Amino acid sequence: MPRRQRLSPADRRAQLLATGAQLFAAHPYDDVLMEDVARAAGVSRALLYRHFPSKHALFAAVYQQAADRLLAETRLDPGDSLVAQLVQGMDVHLDYFTANRNAVLTANRVLSGDPVIQSIMTNELDALRTRLLAVLPVADDGSREAVSAVLKSWLVFVQVLCVDWLTHETCTRTQLRDLCIGALLGALRSLFPDEPALACPPP
Fold it and tell me: CA-to-CA distance for 82 and 91, rounded, in angstroms?
C-alpha cells in the first residue's frame, strides 16, 4: 500500500468518494469490494469504514454527489429556446449515463428497491420537474397541474428508456436524446397548441 497522504476529514471524504465513483463506474456493484476501494485510495479499511460504514453507504454518497452535480450542470435558462434547454439537459445526463453505465444500472436495477437510492433519484426528478415548470408557458393553476403531471410522467419515461438503452443500445445516442425530447414536445403541444416554441422539433 502506498504511503498514506495526510488530508483533512473533508478532503479525505472527497478522495474516497472520487475513488468509489471510479470503481462503481468501472465495475458492477457486486464486484466492487470495500477493500478494493481502500487499496485504490491508499488508505486502510478501518479509515474507509470510519467515513462510510458499508458499501451501500459509499454508493449512496457517490450517487447523491452525482445527482447534485447533474442538477448543477443542467441549465434551464428562459433566455434560450425550450428545445435548446432540453437538448442541454439531456446531453448532461446522457454524458453521465454513458460514462457511468455500471453505476446507473446499479441504482436502477441492482438497488431498485432500496429506499435511500430511490429517494435520491426521486428528489432529482422532482427538482428537474420544478425547474422545467418555471420555464414553460404555464398561465394558471389548472395548466400548472396538467403540465406538472406530464413532466412527472415524462421524466420517469426518460429514466426507464435510458436504463434500457444502457442495457441494449437499440438506437444511437442522438436518436435516444431526440426521441425523449420529441415525446415531451408532443405531449405539451396538446396542452399548448398555439405555443410556437413547441412546434420546433429537436435538432
Answer: 14
What is the DSSP track for 130-194?
A: HHHHHHS---SHHHHHHHHHHHHHHHHHHHHHHHHHHHS--S-HHHHHHHHHHHHHHHHHHH-TT
CA atoms 111, 114, 116, 118: torsion sign: positive
End-to-end CA distance of the chain: give it in Å, rounded. 51
Q: How far is CA 38 from the centre of its chain?
A: 26
140 pLDDT band, cuts 50/70/90, is: confident
pTM of the predicted protein model: 0.89
Burial class (CB in 10 A: 0-12, 13-18, 19+), 6: exposed
The closest of 43, 56, 57, 33 to 9, measured between CA atoms, is: 43
Q: Contact 45/34 with Cβ under 8 angstroms?
A: yes
State the chain's mean pLDDT as an integer. 92
Residue 80 clears pLDDT 90, i.e. is over it: no
Q: What is the mean pLDDT of residues 158-165?
A: 97
* H helix count then E strand count, the chain: 9, 0
User: Of 114, 75, 81, which Cα lies nearest the Cα of 93?
Assistant: 75
61-to-23, 97, 124, 168 alpha-carbon distances in Å: 14, 17, 14, 27
- In terms of C-beta density within 10 A (0-12 exposed, 13-18 middle, 19 or more buried), how is residue 79 classed? exposed
CA 6 to chain centre: 32
